[in-house]
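Bug report (template v2)

What were you trying to do?
Predict the complex of my protein with hypoxanthine.

What happened?
Run completed; filing so the output is reviewed.

Input:
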Amino acid sequence: MENTINFINEKTDDFVPEIGIILGSGLGEFADEYCEYSIPYAEIPGFIKSNVAGHKGRLVFSEIEGKKVVMMQGRNHYYEGHSMAEITYPVKVMKKLGVKTLILTNAAGSVNESFRPADLMIITDHINFMGTNPLIGPNDNTLGERFPDMSEIYKKDLVKLAEKCAEKLCIDIQKGIYFASSGPSYETPAEINMARIIGADAVGMSTVPEAIVANYCGMNVLGISCISNPASGISDVKLSHAEVIETTDKAKNRFKSLVLEILKEL
Ligand code: HPA
């Protein structure tokens, strides 16, 4: 870890970010416009070396709306075969760099039948259905405690703030519970039916490991899902990654203005 932090500090002239943003599928463009320093993951000690599919795969540092921000332009996923520890390492790095608030974003399928493709949803809580937990293993007491409380990962104040920002921008916003499956296959209709019955509103293959680790490290988490498709069995349409990317593209301007407004208000 020390190695990683020293390397980053040297590349960024000791830039101290207070806010972290992880940009999900189709939402990475945001970082292109605000880029004071950027470091490809492949160069960073401790980061996964493989490419992030469809993403640049780099850390981007910039001041945006008066806030010092570090962004992950693209993330690695559990379904690629990386360990939970590997995919959540960047969250621990952000914590050590100074990040207090982490904004997690993703593309997700809708389980809630009132949601429409390209809707934005503020995450109020999650269901971890990935079959594992990123905190399994010896505990690093310098980061957090062995049995962290998870009763308010997605801080209510941040949910309110995001809602207020959306309202100001006249963006219709949904709120709901994110259900994480490991992927890479999409879910079956029966699995989505179960997710709906147990309270899920949206489903995806990321975010939850990062949220668990960020909460454990004492960071405040805000989650925003871009609804890219009706989940399996919610409509007759077969799911495809191309559809996911196409729909997030439609939402990206709204997503961008919402994130900018949130940064201004934070
Ligand atoms: N299921 C899981 N992950 C997803 C989906 C989905 O329907 N859409 C985008 N990511």
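What did the reviewer find?
The mean pLDDT is 95. The CA atoms of residues 4 and 45 lie 5 Å apart.
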